[in-house]
C-alpha cells in the first residue's frame, strides 16, 4: 500500500477542473492509441518474465553465476538500479548487480576488477543499439575478459535493445540472446520493459509482483480512483513560474537511486519547447532525509519561495534497531530519543521537517510506502510515470522525445571523427 | 593547478564593478575581523596535523586499526567524505573510511555489520555536541561493540566538537581524546578544521598538502590574483531572478560527494532572509557527467532558461584504459572512439556538452583540475568557500548562520518529549 496526501495551499478552480477533464481525455487517448506503450507494461511484460525463466533453464552458464553486470547508461540503467537498491537488502539470495555506466576510468577500473568472469552474466542495454559510452564499455568488457562472444561464451551475454537495431543484428549474428524494447517506450519510461525486467529477473527478484503493482496503479487510475495525480499535475504545471522546482525528500538511503530515476523521468520528459515555441518544464531535485536536512532545508525554509516539496517515506522498515537506553554524562539532553527505534527517529524527522516547511506556506505532499515490497515499487513507478505524462499534456509538450540532447552528440562525433 | 574560465554572456557594467570593489572590501573585513575563521585554516590547522601525529604515536590502538568510522551528519561528514572519495583510489595504503550519517536502519545495519571492533577507530563529530542523529548512532556504536569508553577502549574513540560543548565535557570526563572546532567556523565551512583534518590525517592522507592548497588560494585571492571569483559572484547574484539555479556538472564519479558538499555550502549559506526581509538565495544542483547528460541535459537545453551551468573536469587521470580497437559487426558506427582512452571520451563529452549548452545562450563556466592531488582539493574547497562568502555579501545576508533549521528541531523535540 502507498498513501498519497497533500498539504497544497493552492486550490483547484473551475478552469483547472476543466483542464483536468481535458487532460484525462488526452491521457486515455495516449494509452489507447499507444502513443506511449508504458501504460500496459504491467501485463505486456509478463511474457518477458516467462521467456527469461525458460532461457535460464536452457542456459548452462546461469547456474554458476552470482553477478549480473548491466552495461547501460541513463534510461538503460537508472530504473533497474533504483529497484535493485530498494530491494537488495531484502533478498539475501539475489545475485549481485553491478552497473557499468559512466566512461570514468577510476570507477570502471574498480568495478571491472571486482568481476570474476566465471561467475558473471553481462547484460548490455542500449535502445538505439549504438550508445557510445555503452558500446565502448562493452568492447572493453569483451576484451578484458576474453569473452568468446562468437562461440563458447555467447551464453554469458544478453542484449536488450530495439528491434533491428545494430546491437540486435550483432546479437543475432552470434547467437547471443536478445530481448526487445517496445518501439513506443522511451528510455526513461522503460524500466518495466525488458530493460529492467530481464536483468532483475535474472538477479532473482520477484518481478511479477512489480508488474502487478504497476498494472494495479494503471487500472485504478483509469477507473478514476487515483485522481490526486491529476490534481497534482494541474497544480504543479499551473504554478510552474512561481515554483519551477519540485524537490523530492526521500527518507531512506535505499531510495537515493529512485530519486535519480525520478530526476531523469521528470527533467527529460518535461524540459521541452512547447507548442507555442516557449521553453517550459519543471526542475526535479532529489534529496535524502534526514541527511539533507543538514544541507538543503535552510534554503527551502528561508530562500526564495520557488519550490514545492514531496516527501517519500517508509512506514514499516523491517529491521528494528533501538536507540539504546543509555545516558551519557553531559549528553542527557539527547535522551529524549532513547528507547525509540531509529525508524521512529527518521520518521519523526520527516514529520517535523514537513510541518516546519508547510508552516512557511510552502506546498508539500507526502507519499507513504507502508513496506518495502515489489508491489509498491511497481505502483510508485507508475505513479510517477502517469504524473509525468499528465504534466506533459498540461504543458502542451511531447513528454516522450528528447530532441535537445542531439546537438551534443553531433559535436562529440565531430570532435573524434577525423 | 586548477584553471577557471567562463563563457558568461553577461558582462560586468560600472555598477557591478563598483559592487565588486565594495564586496572585496567587505570580505577583507570578514577575514580580518574573524567574522568567519575559515580564511586562515590553511595555516591554523597545521597544528592539528602535528597534534594528530603525536597522538597517533602515543595511541597504542591506532597501529592495529584499518578503518576510521566517522559518526557525523551534514557539515560534520560531507566535506570529509568528499575528500575521501576523491583521494581513496590513489592511496591504496590509506585506512578505509566509513561514514555513519543517516539514522536509516537498513543503511546503519549494513555498515555496522561491516565493522570489526578490533580494527576500528571511532570519530564522533558534532559541533553543538548534541546533534540528535549523531549522538543516537554513537550510543548504538558504544552498545553494539561493547566499547568500554570509560576505560580500556577510550583510545578507540575521538571526539571533535566545540569547546565546552556537552560532547567535549563527556570526552574530558573519560579521558577520550578530543579536538576543538573554532567557534567562528560553521559546520559547512569546517572541513579544514579538526572536523575533516583529524579523521583524514588518521586515515593516512597527506592533509598538509590540502592545507597548502587552501592557503595558496586564499593568498592569491587577497593579492587580487583570482578576481574571476568576484566576477562570478557578482554575475550570479545579480542575475538570480533570471537564473535562480546553478548546476554543477562534474565529469568524474569521484566528485559526486564533492558536489554534495557544494550543495550544502551553497544552499545553506545563501538561502536566507536578506536585510530587507526578503527571501533570497540561489539553488545548487549537482550532477555527474556523462551519466546525467542522459538525464538532465534535455531540461537544460530546452527547458526554462533558469540555470547557469558550471562544469568541473579532470584533465589528467592517472589510469589509462583505451577503448579497444575492436570492430563489432553491425556496430561499426561506434568505432570512431576506438583507440582513444575512456578519459578522452568523457573529456570529449564534457566539451561537447559545454559547447551545445553554451550555443543556447546559457551562461556556463568551467573548472579544470589538472590532476587529482591534495593541493588541488584544498584550492577547490577555498574557491567555493570564497565564492559563497562573496555571494552572501552581495546578497546582503549572513552566509554563516542557519536560523531556518531550528523550527524542525523544535517540532521534533515536541514529538518525542513527553
Q: Care to describe what's here?
A:
The structure is a homodimer of 418-residue chains. In chain A, 44% of the residues lie in helices and 16% in strands. Chain A has 418 residues and is an alpha/beta fold. Chain A has two domains: 2-33 and 210-404, 3-Layer(aba) Sandwich (Rossmann fold), CATH 3.40.50.10490; 38-205, Glucose-6-phosphate isomerase like protein, domain 1 (Rossmann fold), CATH 3.40.50.10490. Chain A has a five-stranded mixed beta sheet, sandwiched between helices. Chain A has a five-stranded parallel beta sheet with strand order 3-2-4-5-6, with helices on both faces. In chain A, α13 (342-358) links the parallel β11 (307-316) and β12. Chain A is globular, with a radius of gyration of 23 Å. The N and C termini of chain A lie far apart (56 Å). The model of chain A has no long low-confidence stretch (mean pLDDT 96). Chains A and B meet through α5, α6, α7, α11 and β8 of A and α5, α6, α7, α11 and β8 of B.
